[in-house]
Amino acid sequence: MEEFVNYILQFGNLNSQQIELILSKAETLELRKEEYFSEAGKVPRYVGFLLKGVTRFCYYNNKSEEITHSFVEENNFVSDQQKFEMQMVASEYIQAITDCQLLVFSKKNWDEIGNTIVGWKEMENLIVKNCLLKAIERRSPLVSEDATSRYLSFLNQFPGLVNRVPLSHVASYLGITQQSLSRIRKNIR
């Protein structure tokens, strides 16, 4: 809980009563490895803050290939925010790659926080903006770099993650085959 409070306080000031209110609206959710936090074809139920574990955002392309387009580690928000806010059907999956523990907020509770705490919507906007900028920052180099550079950038951006997630997900994220990733890993050792 402390990590969550420290995280949100980066984006604005809250007094102890406001923090208590926010925490009172949260529930703890445990996800086992490979379970879904949110699924394509369903309306996202929660906004979550990852206390433990790693999740990934993925979808299926027109060839029915599974594509991983981002990872979220501990002490970060995880949600399909736009679809959650609008209560629309999601087009991608959010899956636990490891066993995960999350602090989650239902739509009703999330809205109650926003309607009760003056300035929460501005904080929420800054949090969402921060998450988007991080995602763009991590994806941008993947467009112009060669496969080895993309892998080295991945190692730099997600230190330790390569030992926690299946290499097939890493390869998919990098836009290369698992065989190419094995070759690259072998060549840089």
UniProtKB/TrEMBL annotation:
Keywords: Kinase, Transferase. GO terms for molecular function: kinase activity. It comes from Chryseobacterium soldanellicola. It holds the Pfam family cNMP_binding. Residues 30-113 form the Cyclic nucleotide-binding domain. Gene3D superfamilies: Jelly Rolls. This is cAMP-binding domain of CRP or a regulatory subunit of cAMP-dependent protein kinases.
